[in-house]
Amino acid sequence: MTVISSSFVLVFLLLASLCCAAPATNPKATTISIVASKPTSSLQSAVPKAAASSQSAVPKPAASSQPAAKAPPALLSQATADEAGGGVPSGPLPATSFTPNAVQLFKVANFIENIESAFFAQVLQSLGKDQNFNAPATDGRSIANVTSQIAAQELVHIATVGGLLGAAGEQAVPACANVVGVTDTNDFLARSNVITSASIGVIIGLISTLAMSDPTLVRPLASILSTESQQDTFFRMSGNNTPSAAPFNTGLSTTFAYNIALTFVDPRSCPQLMPLPILPSLNLTSPMMTATAPVTPPTSITFNATEVPRDGNLYVGWVNQANPVVYTNVTLKNGVGSADVPKGLTGITFAALTAQMTEITVDGLSNVTLAGPAAVLLS
């Protein structure tokens, strides 16, 4: 096993606030030097057949062969580090190695981090004159103040992941050009709750995978997970919600997190997509995602079903907290689909349309999803 002691491995240990869950298959037990090897295509094997028809409408991922890696990106400015509360980490730390699967996961992390960074940067510009966005709270800080710090932290995360990929002889993933805008502060808070919840979800899944293949990375990722939760608390409380509505956060798969991130950009503006399935959207008509949770949690959802297959039974699989996936029946009528919300779900949950009800893990559900996932704020 070849060991890497480069400082770019050291920067990795405050990995991007959004990493990604592993595919259903387990990585190999042996590790190899990420300098000497290219990542395998293990993520490609997880593409479900049900999603194949949706690929023609979006650009395909870039070819697997990459040009020679360039030098790692320059470190961030001191001003950005000061705003973020710290820069790319350095200092003597134990050397480590990575499986090819881990490198592939970091590429997806790089992709999603780019989207998060662009989203917050765009909001700081578009809501610059919004009174609610700029009004100071009792502590003197506004939503704009905190968002500016979060945006700086995302730049630190991108530099961290870019440094890791550079040390591995890989190029950083280029950012998508066009970010979907927000209409006002409430829209921003609602969407921030979604993207931060997705970030938390994929870190939970990544920790589970790396505990087997790259255990030295678990501790720093666990620290990142707590920070992500604190950020989500800010967005929830700014939307007049309780800091946490559930005793457990919800773990997500890489595929689900990737598709959630793609709703924040125009996929056609992305120079390089990931080797993951792009699923059709599950377009909810009720309840709509808002910054503030409803006083009475919804008991059902409705969605546009004009393009939903009508041969055979359909179900909605619900992913919530640390529980197994649960299912409710779908009813179709006049181009509208509806399904009950199972009892006992709290906080933010994720719904996916499927034609089966036997998969009990989020990875298993991801492989048989026909549309989704859609975020539903219950409490």
Question: Short description, anyone?
Answer:
This protein is α+β, with helices and mostly antiparallel strands and 379 residues long. It is built from nine helices and seven strands; from the N terminus they run H-H-H-H-H-H-H-H-E-E-E-E-E-E-H-E.
In terms of topology, how is this protein built?
Layout: H1 7-11, H2 78-84, H3 100-126, H4 131-134, H5 143-167, H6 185-213, H7 218-238, H8 254-262, E1 284-286, E2 300-304, E3 315-319, E4 326-333, E5 336-340, E6 348-354, H9 362-366, E7 369-377
Antiparallel strand pairs: 1-2, 2-5, 3-4, 3-6, 4-5, 6-7
Describe this entry's structure for a reader:
The protein has 379 residues and is of the alpha+beta class. It has two domains: 7-54 and 68-269, Ferritin, CATH 1.20.1260.10; 284-377, Immunoglobulin-like (Sandwich). 35% of the residues lie in helices and 11% in strands. The protein is built from nine helices and seven strands. A seven-stranded antiparallel β-sheet has the order 1-2-5-4-3-6-7. Strand 4 (326-333) and strand 5 form a beta hairpin. Helix 3 (100-126) packs antiparallel against helix 5 (143-167) and helix 3 (100-126) runs antiparallel to helix 6. It starts with 6 loop residues before the first helix and ends with a strand. The relative contact order is 0.17.
